[in-house]
Design brief:
The chain is mainly alpha-helical and about 70 residues long. Helix content is about 60%, strand content about 0%. The protein has one domain. It comes from Corynebacterium choanae.
Length: about 70
């Protein structure tokens, strides 16, 4: 997953204000770090996204983002 796709999914699910807050402040249970830290460390963004989905109980039908 590219960083742009990750950002698109974050904004689509959480919005333009809450999304960046989550990326910068939420500690992902599976990794013990924030998405921003994981991004900087080169972690697989797909795995980070799925872990965020688990943390926030995002339903399966929304995990791939909105239909364009």
């Amino acid at each position: 997953m590219q960083e742009t796709e990750f950002a698109r999914l974050i904004e689509a699910e959480f919005g333009p204000y809450q999304g960046p807050f989550i990326v910068n402040n939420h500690v992902v249970r599976e990794f013990g770090r924030t998405p921003k830290e994981l991004l900087e460390q080169g972690e697989d963004l797909r795995q980070v996204w799925w872990a965020l989905c688990d943390d926030f109980d995002i339903p399966e039908d929304r995990r791939l983002g909105p239909d364009e």
